[in-house]
């Protein structure tokens, strides 16, 4: 009997509905495996701005620090688009990443055969997609020094600093190499070394790492070429590792290849508590209507069992149930196609539970 | 009778073959229209490293400065990958952009109906693509201060500075808005204003510009979302304007949608001489074999007539001839499909000339 504890942060928009289903599925799967965990709910994002005047209350941070894992829905929405910059809902995400020192964002992008037809890409290109994007999440231009618009010698200007240190690069590359060992053993490190000094250091460290990980093949790719290859030849990637900004862009580009971003999970890892959330947004337009797809959050919960709660068994059980639900033709409206069975957010959760 | 003068820079790899055809087509088209221009050939890139020990000789820069337009093939190749960083072939490109103050890179991305089937995207998605990407080319992190790997307090680190000033942002946005007027009147300004101070200034300037260009509709999009939308819904874009780094990534991503990067031209404009080049690389593996597709360079020459040589008539004539050659089924090997007529680089040039 384990005694793990998780924090659930519903967030805004559809966040409450999708985390509710992911929690139900997690509890049912845990029960089947004789595993138990406790949970508490905390606020962040717009909901926290409304309740406490700040997007990321100290109380939420403290609870997350003490927990074994955090399951998050989605934050933000037009209601909070016009608050002061330091209060914006996104600050909750950036703040959590920093407070928990979540330096690695893992985004597995895999095509569910049952959904491949919904990809914008031709079937023969999309079929082979199985990519793990490892994005550095705690450094780079996201957290460098910056200068908001200011007047210098009569000219208005602004700047931001991109930068990485060797330890930051080493830990993310190490994680990428380790992840590749359980996969095809191939790591593509993406940078812009023909222009950026930061990328040249990144590349140097990656080459040194390559010497240490002899089971892994590391190759380098420029970010512009990578943006092309993800569309032309996505099946050629295994693990893709890159910095925070390039990772933001490339992981979203890669996400749409799958044809169903509502199903994509993510894990943000550090040395302490991990954070798990679907990659889609808070979709305020459909909030509360039972139309949201909970599968991305359910699959994020599976990752939480794998990386933070120490149960590969439960992770695999949830993932297999999701596969089966799709094979059996259940679809929320975002992925619905004629002839299949349209279900609500809650029914989708139940169908997953039925197949555990 | 005009007396315009151009510089041709063949560069490396397939550069000589493709610029030769573009020059032949340009001369033939000019003749038909009673227009004449002179030209001279200059070296840059690996060819210049071999001949003069530097990738961008002063003599080349001077000639370009004095010319009305510069037509470039492609530079670089593995032969020069291991020279000292400051001698790398790419320095020729970055140096030319800076010396000629080419602040705007125009990348029209249009799908030739005859080639749409070669796109990695499904036909119904790709059909409507007609995007003009306007990339800022003379500022941002490409030319900001940077620190190569160095040890500070026992930690090795490196950094690069992204930054823009108001005048830099204004001139590129103005150019984007003007370009939109002859098109669908829609400008999408791409940034990362939820993270970067530079983007927040960019967005502020764009909003002010919107007030001045009432015929144009300006909207904002985050770069990660843009990377998604280019694949999901590329037909929704008209003019896309962005900074140097985001433009590098997004223009290459958008290029592959067309299914035929061998056909895509580019123009780099400033207040003086303009530079015209295909978007593809120097393809050293097929250099000298007559296998290269000259159409991207030929269409770049058309843009040169439009923007630098003052003849919309010749530009349109060349573009129409290229369309017709494709409709008539002529294909270089990169775009060949069974049942069509495979031609060499030179034959392709001749087929275009035959249709002027
Ligand atoms: C909300 C935003 C700050 C965030 C980011 O850029 O990291 C988001 O795009 C993401 O990828 O999680
Ligand atoms: C060669 C390189 C420096 C260049 C760039 O990044 O601008 C290239 O990718 C391009 O887009 O023209």
Automatic annotation (TrEMBL), chains A, B:
Reactions accelerated catalytically: (2R,3S)-3-isopropylmalate + NAD(+) = 4-methyl-2-oxopentanoate + CO2 + NADH
Residues in Isopropylmalate dehydrogenase-like domain copies: 5-352
Location of the protein in the cell: Cytoplasm
Pathway(s) this gene product operates in, as recorded in its UniProt entry: Amino-acid biosynthesis; L-leucine biosynthesis; L-leucine from 3-methyl-2-oxobutanoate: step 3/4
A cellular component annotation (GO) from this entry: cytosol
Positions of substrate binding: 97, 107, 135, 224
Top-level taxonomic group: Bacteria
Gene Ontology terms: biological process: L-leucine biosynthetic process
Cofactor notes: Binds 1 Mg(2+) or Mn(2+) ion per subunit.
InterPro entries linked to this entry: IsoCit/isopropylmalate_DH_CS (IPR019818), IsoPropMal-DH-like_dom (IPR024084), Isopropylmalate_DH (IPR004429)
Binding-site residues for NAD(+), renumbered to this chain: 281-293
EC number of this enzyme: 1.1.1.85
GO terms for MF: 3-isopropylmalate dehydrogenase activity; magnesium ion binding; NAD binding
Listed cofactors: Mg(2+); Mn(2+)
UniProtKB keywords: Amino-acid biosynthesis, Branched-chain amino acid biosynthesis, Cytoplasm, Leucine biosynthesis, Magnesium, Manganese, Metal-binding, NAD, Oxidoreductase
SUPFAM superfamilies membership: Isocitrate/Isopropylmalate dehydrogenase-like
Site (Important for catalysis): 142, 192
Main location: cytoplasm
Family to which this protein belongs: Belongs to the isocitrate and isopropylmalate dehydrogenases family. LeuB type 1 subfamily.
Protein purpose: Catalyzes the oxidation of 3-carboxy-2-hydroxy-4-methylpentanoate (3-isopropylmalate) to 3-carboxy-4-methyl-2-oxopentanoate. The product decarboxylates to 4-methyl-2 oxopentanoate.
Subunit structure as annotated in this protein's UniProt entry: Homodimer.
Record's protein name: 3-isopropylmalate dehydrogenase
Organism for this UniProt entry: Sporomusa ovata
Gene designation: leuB
